[in-house]
Amino acid sequence: MWVKHHTPKLITFAISRPESYRFKAGQFSRLGFYEGKGFIWRAYSVVSAEYADTLEYFAVLIQDGPMSALFAKMQQGDTILLDKNATGFLLPERFPDGKDLVMLCTGSGIAPFLSILEQPEIRQRFDTVNLIHSVSFPEELIFNDRLAALSEHPLVGEYGHSFRFVPVTTRAANPSGLSGKRIPELLKTTASNRRCIPSSPRNPHGL
Predict the structure, then answer these.
(1) Which own/partner contact pairs does 151-159 have at CB distance under 8 Å and 24+ positions apart?
(2) pLDDT exceeds 70 at position 200
(3) Which of 36, 78, 153, 200 has the largest CB neighbor count within 10 A?
């Protein structure tokens, strides 16, 4: 296991993937600990690609949350329980066909989309794949570099020209994207003005 604390509240971590463990991009795992007199389990979306050798996750630590307290103490080499079956229905094959795919998310909701973005099949189905990720503050946009690196990815890098990423912050200025609006308000404004949402300077396209 490795663990990385990005902010006091945001962590990513990865565990070894059992050979028998199967999941589809967009699904989640049940992770757990043995605590005191019993077990504690929570569901977390898999960040890793389907073909990855490790299982990576993203967690937001909640004050007084029992699982968050255990995550906060995790260190490299620790052990965590993994339920044998992945589940969830946010699957690319359930997305209706069309010209443009737009994925909207806030906070930790970006996790399943990170897995989906590393699947060549989804990049081949749409002319553009667009990700809008909204957080409160710029320091919470912890996946910006990872998303930029997709242009060099051995399996999906060739589709980099069709990927558009829009980071949004709601409580502070955001030099790399949009700020001051929540996603519903942003969509309402852009729809009424009939104009494109500007994207990050890392990927200078509109939606």
Answers:
(1) 153/118, 155/118, 155/120, 156/117, 156/118, 156/119, 156/120, 156/123, 159/120, 159/123, 159/124, 159/129
(2) no
(3) 200
